[in-house]
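Task 17 of the worksheet. Students: predict the tertiary structure of the chain below and write it out as structure tokens. Keep your answer in the requested format; marks are given for formatting as well as content.
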Amino acid sequence: MEQHIIVRVAHSGDIHYADTITNEMESSAKARGTGIAKRSPQYIADKMKEGKAVIAYTADATWVGFCYIETWSHGSYVANSGLIVAPEFRKSGVAKNIKKRIFELSREKYPDSKIFGLTTGLAVMKINSELGYEPVTYSELTQDEAFWAGCKSCVNYDILMAKERKNCMCTAMLFDPADHYEPTETKEQFEKDSKVYERLLRLKQRIFGKKEKETIGASRPKSLMHYFFNF
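Model answer:
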């Protein structure tokens, strides 16, 4: 029988899940060979207490998923970070529900902020596109040093620094409240280009696993390739 899953804003009563969440974040990153920037149980607990996180669980209190909000550049940028779903609940649609709620929470708390995310997964890109995000270059993200310092615990940090923070294994996506496409448009565009995205993600994994010469281009981006391989 399918279990009912509750998705809501987290609070101080949820801090007992913090260890489970951080352990799953770490094991999931290792399994993928990529990385979510590592966070401590205390950091996750603080996000819950501040009302800057969304949690999912079953009626019998089994933890299902989690995501939290971070702010950068004095609140000009907001990141929906650390999306994680327990293995037994993946492909159930709960990740989409968590992303939708954390996006709504971000808009409620920071209506004028740009919301961005970094992901190595096509599934997360799809969910983001349905919310109105679009792929962007790293230059359009926050340049707050504290944000990039948070990537130090990621297994791909050396790649990020070798690329002078212009690119890495992750793909950047952004929602700008002042200038954005409608979710129906970004969703339609993603569906149209999904096969291309899939190939580019695989290509990025191969390319960034090797040493290569830096290339410099001053022209305006003209294709999807720019958003994946902007050096």
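Marker's comment: The longest strand covers residues 63-72. The chain has one domain: 5-229.
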